[in-house]
Description:
By secondary structure, the protein is α/β, with parallel strands linked by helices. The chain has helices spanning 2-28, 62-72, 83-88, 90-99, 118-136, 152-160, 181-188, 216-219, 222-237, 245-257; strands spanning 49-57, 78-81, 102-105, 142-143, 164-165, 196-201, 241-242.
Amino acid sequence: MVARRVALQTLLACALLALTGFWLYEISENPSNQLFGSTLVSGPADQRVVALTFDDGPNPPYTTAILEVLEREHVHATFFLVGRAVAAYPSIVRREVRDGDAIGNHSWSHAHLILMSPAQLSSSLARTDAAIYRATGAHTRIMRPPFGARDWLVLAQARRLGYTPVMWSVPLANDWEEPPPQTIADRIVPYVHDGAIIVLHDGNRGIVCANGHVPAKTCDRHSEIEATQLIIERLRREGYRFVTVPELLSLKGNATRTPAPGSE
Length: 264
Ligand SMILES: [Zn+2]
């Protein structure tokens, strides 16, 4: 009888532990939760602005083609770069900066930051920053955790290193599965709001396909090019102005500093 009760209690404890683990894993990747510390999820909710962000590059020829769309449309975007790809394609990063786009740190190899020790996490961000600095002569102060996965330690460490962690407010379009461009746009545009942050992918976890032993399909991001064009056209028609993440941060900073009418 006692043995049965112990077995039942053990079973219950295991189930509870599994549920808690699952819940923690789910919220660790939820872009808007602030449970683990503050992150930038969106900009000011009273301004018709939107930030386009691209993760996981640089990744030619797709990143270059996206840069051409942005240039033609006079839109500045934000690229969250993977260090190993920056080291492989520094000239694309230089062009992003020259074009007026903003860049952010997306770790060295797109590993889960929550599985890293503080020293490994620091090294992943520092190595990426060094590659960005070698390519452009500039440092970045914004970062996005791969998979959006973070916990208290990751965010505290990122902030200690001087980074503002940046998430997103428009649901992911599963664009990495390369659906048709129209589908990507349809999955994004209806969810855009004032101050929104959109995520697209110009690369695949910073994998460098030019290395030869990687199938070209791994890096295929052709749908993103036309999707970028469609999203820009449709949001322009809705009256949106495109800004970079640092611009969004400064708009938000100004909004919080500006006293409300009638107040001190
Ligand atoms: Zn990513």
